[in-house]
């Protein structure tokens, strides 16, 4: 088939393609620069070279880089015992918990004595009839009963206390507290006094005849001092309290050997347990010169040492010691009826202030080794207690034995 001749010369449009360009459309044969773009035609913009770079042919686009492979997940460690499996467990103390610790400790310090106090024996001690009137300060009667009823057979053997029969008192002390120094005064058990309804006799016989009431009445009649509170400690009580506080220090002035009291200690200051402290306070056969007078001195020494240990800071910081101490009270201590836990605490506090510069420890003034009271000197001592003027008591009146210093040297 012959080529179909094109109509017109160069630059003319072929009528066959008029449908594409239209009558007035651009000539496809016209030069490219002379063409005018149609409104619907896409224009391609040339790439502009960067500053300092010569224009050149278009560079092909770089091939896309492959995405990096994900890092391997770390191998989880096995959970440690006690942890939640989400990592190592670290305890955190919250402020609220820190506040609860001291509150709980204060509750413990308050509740334990009240629990123990509910089991303490109450003693009927106030005598009937005429008594001395109210006096300034507070005077406690402290009685050490040698009753063995609270001890088992094994305890009596260990402590060397003998049988369980009888009820006597080996220890009689008055503790006075007031505006002046505290005063702890021993009354020898063999002191001869008038016992109401019984006549003259040894003062400890009053306890055997009529118990705490008759003993209190006898002391008030003989001294004129009004007794405000009563405290009684059993034979095993002293040993139990000493062990509860971890022992006490005693300072014998000579070697002491007493098989009956289970005692064998050397001269000089030393720490002793409850059994040894009890033997030290009971023995009266180790001092050939002063005998029972020395025993009263040792009793005051042990009582003062116990008081220092009871109210030491370590007692309140050590829960085991605090618990043992409070629970040793019901089995061995008795308090007078009408005495409350606060009164008992005041007594315990006063017992810590009866030695050294804080207080006075004396024997009742006596005239000789038969423990007869010196009328003039003893009245001076009793009046100082009655009038709450213990700061006026001279050292010559307050002696460990009760004898004048001219006798003891």
What is the end-to-end distance? Answer: 167 Å
How many helices in DSSP terms?
A: 12
**Radius of gyration computed on alpha carbons:** 52 Å
Order of helical and strand elements: HHEEHEEEEHEHEEEEHHHHEHEHH
**Which secondary-structure class do the elements indicate?**
alpha/beta
Order of strands across the main sheet: 1-12-7-2-3-4-13
Percent of residues in β-strands: 5-15%
Shape: elongated
Number of strands: 13
Write up what this structure looks like:
With 409 residues, the protein is α/β, with parallel strands linked by helices. It has helices at residues 18-21, 95-117, 153-159, 203-223, 235-244, 274-282, 292-310, 313-317, 319-332, 341-351, 375-386, 405-408; strands at residues 121-123, 138-145, 169-177, 182-186, 192-195, 199-202, 229-233, 248-250, 256-258, 263-265, 270-272, 333-336, 359-363. The strands form 4 sheets. The protein has a 7-stranded mixed sheet with strand order 1-12-7-2-3-4-13, sandwiched between helices. Strands 5-6 form a two-stranded antiparallel sheet. Strand 9 (256-258) and strand 10 form a beta hairpin. It is elongated and about 130 Å long. The termini are far apart. Residues 1-11 have low confidence and may be disordered.
Summarize the structure.
This protein has helices at about 20, 95-115, 155-160, 205-225, 235-245, 275-280, 290-310, 315, 320-330, 340-350, 375-385, 405-409, and strands spanning about 120-125, 140-145, 170-175, 180-185, 190-195, 200, 230-235, 250, 255-260, 265, 270, 335, 360-365. The protein is of the alpha/beta class and about 400 residues long. Helix 5 (about 235-245) crosses helix 6, helix 5 (about 235-245) packs antiparallel against helix 9 and helix 6 packs antiparallel against helix 7.
